[in-house]
Design brief:
Layout lengths: L5 E5 L3 H11 L5 E5 L2 H10 L6 E5 L7 H10 L8 E5 L4 H10 L3 E4 L4 H61 L4 H17 L5 H10 L12 H4 L7 H8 L1 H9 L5 H12 L20 H15 L11 H10 L7 H9 L1 H9 L2
Parallel strand pairs: 1-2, 1-3, 3-4, 4-5
């Protein structure tokens, strides 16, 4: 912003322009002038940010002051420039119309030097104070937005750190290995990336939240969790509670990673046909996060050794997943999986 205010004087009588300039030179302003309304608009169009105040005659031939004011106020780059109307007589209707169009004041002709100097000085000060306030507000908004984003990033990093600690704890108490947890993250994130309704943010959330899918197992008795062979009915009923235990542990948070982890832990054992647990919900009643991790978890579990079973060949696991399309698994996810199956098997091969 130039320190020397620039005033545009618009009047069809050159003598009036000269008188105004002679008076206002006392305050060391820069001046431009026009004797027609369309000339004034051309000046403004050529350099809309040059002017700090406009003295505008009302009664001019061709394009009058009201029309000029209306056009100035309709343009984003000029609408804030203060306009003071110049009038030869105090016509209440004309003055009211001028204010309604956005003028800030009016001055009667012939000019009184002290009045002209004071009104121009006051409105320039107000205009420049308003510009400074807007700049300050913009800087403040930018700072607040930066601080908000910084705090969100810190909160998300804290959530990721908590998730890492909890998954480390889970590895130490169950047969889940670090490689399994990493593969679940990769498989789930890839499925989310391929799904048309999922965003890049969803893929990132699943990458960080899916390792918590079995966190509830830390509260399952050791003899059940590490039993060699198949669980009996009572033992399996206890094992199934890990979904509810995890949900109760995580669902008090409204942070996105923890909230997603709660959903995944609660729903990744539900089935598309409604025969899963713990709530027997089906189809789209199951959150897409839960449906994605269900497929990723089963694919990885089938192809790797667990304490209760040997690893299946990849082809056998793929056949099982195809057979379970529309039963255990979301049909759309199965189709996506097989359309990009090489990408998913590459994740297994990368271990």
């Amino acid at each position: 912003m130039n320190n020397k205010p620039h005033i545009l004087i618009v009047d069809d009588i050159v003598d009036n322009i000269q008188v105004a300039m002679n008076i206002l030179r006392e305050d060391n302003y820069d001046f431009s002038f026009a004797t027609k309304g369309d000339e004034a608009l051309e000046l403004l169009q050529g350099n809309p940010t040059r002017y700090d105040l406009i003295l505008l005659d009302i009664m001019m031939p061709s394009v009058n002051g009201f029309e000029v004011c209306n056009q100035i106020k309709s343009q984003p780059l000029t609408r804030q420039i203060p306009i003071i109307f110049l009038t030869a007589k105090v016509d209440i209707d004309s003055i009211s119309k001028g204010f309604s169009l956005g003028a800030v004041d009016y001055i009667t002709k012939p000019f009184h030097a002290d009045e002209l100097l004071a009104r121009v000085r006051n409105h320039l000060n107000l205009y420049r104070a308003n510009l400074l306030l807007q700049e300050h507000n913009l800087a403040l908004e930018t700072k607040i937005r930066y601080e908000h984003n910084r705090l969100l990033t810190e909160l998300e990093n804290n959530q990721k750190e908590i998730i890492y600690i909890l998954t480390e704890l889970m590895e130490s108490t169950s047969d889940e290995t670090g490689k399994h947890i990493h593969r679940i993250a990769e498989l789930s994130s890839l499925l989310a990336h391929l799904h048309p309704s999922m965003t890049a943010e969803d893929a990132d959330v699943l990458y960080h939240a899916s390792p918590m899918h079995d966190i509830g197992k830390i509260k399952i008795p050791h003899h059940i969790l590490h039993k060699q062979g198949k669980l009996d009915t009572d033992e399996f009923d206890i094992m199934k509670t890990h979904t509810i235990l995890a949900f109760n542990l995580l669902n008090s948070s409204n942070r996105k990673f923890m909230n997603a982890a709660a959903i995944i832990a609660h729903e990744h054992h539900e089935r598309w046909d409604g025969k899963g647990y713990p709530r027997n919900i089906k189809g789209n009643e199951i959150h897409l996060y839960g449906r994605i991790v269900a497929l990723a978890d089963v694919f990885d579990a089938l192809t790797h050794t667990r304490c209760y079973k040997p690893a299946w060949p990849v082809d056998k696991a793929l056949d099982y997943i195809q057979q379970q399309r529309g039963q255990h698994f979301d049909p759309e996810l199965v189709d996506l999986f097989f359309h990009h199956v090489d990408k998913f098997t590459d994740i297994l091969d990368a271990e």
